[in-house]
Fold:
Amino acid sequence: MKKILVTGGAGFLGSHLCEKLLNENNEVVCLDNYFTGDKSNIVRLLKNPYFELIRHDVTMPFFIEVDEIYNLACPASPIHYQYNGIKTVKTSVMGAINMLGLAKRIKAKVLQASTSEVYGDPEVHPQKEEYWGHVNPIGLRACYDEGKRCAETLFMNYHHQNNVKIKIGRIFNTYGPRMHPCDGRVVSNFIVQALKGEKITIYGDGKQTRSFSYVDDLIVGLIKLMNTNDSFIGPVNLGNPNEFTIIELAEKVLKLTKSKSKLIFSKLPDDDPMQRKPDISLAKKVLKWEPKIQLDEGLVKTIEYFKKKISK
Ligand code: NAD
Ligand code: UDP
Structure:
């Protein structure tokens, strides 16, 4: 039985990861400060004697003995990471330093939940791991993008200087049950708006694209990455390469919810990437991983979740 620390474990992805790791007979310690996470995401897991919950902020040092660390602590939705940009940078950078320092001391393997945002508003399409990105270092998104880029730098330096066993996964837009209804990301916004009969808020002309990955696929990818040979450290793209415009997403949500909500258009936020699609050849080759759940199927499952959540 492995003992595994998941930072950000009470969040959307973290709670699914904790659950899957417990189901695979590991002992799991979930660390979270509940900034964007919620106890309701993991409350069911508290019945399991191999699950432990700790309120802690990753910007502060933390000491524990574990075999593996998944470092997910960081707000991921633009409205939340822009709420306190300084704190977002601290969470990414100091959080990485604290988790890497811990991993070095206890000789644990540590995985960084990095992001497609390291590519910024990409000029290369689809995005391959070799692409260095196109990020505005002083823009609205910089606290998140540059924080995550610096975290990758720290991971590489701890690996090369101190032989820390690391893994870097670059996660592309992921959606599914347990996204917060007020999370502000596009899939949860559109579904909640459609179910409530409110206007669907399209930012810009809606022709910008994203490639959406269902949470279960993504969690399998993260665990495969952690379990690959130590010589493979990444970075590796983890996402679904099927690309949609935001208008196409809105139309799918309207159809699947049978909603009569109207679309309204507002200003596109600054630096909003115009196109995004992962090249996942590396993940396919090394991890033998590719997503199985396509957008319609994943949306149906997510809509079911939000129907129950909203009616409570
Ligand atoms: P989320 O906001 O639901 O989860 C983040 C969790 O981290 C929350 O539980 C939050 O309370 C916790 N947290 C934030 N700051 C913290 C701090 N200082 N100390 C301790 N805990 C803290 O977001 P998510 O979608 O589950 O994202 C999880 C991770 O995956 C993040 O690192 C994010 O950058 C990365 N990621 C997610 C996506 C996606 O589409 N979901 C895409 C790329 C990268
Ligand atoms: N978006 C939108 N309406 C919303 C929320 C988001 O049109 O209510 C757009 C947003 O401008 C972006 C895309 O949807 O172009 C994805 O936004 P999200 O915040 O989910 O993720 P990110 O921009 O970080 O990829």
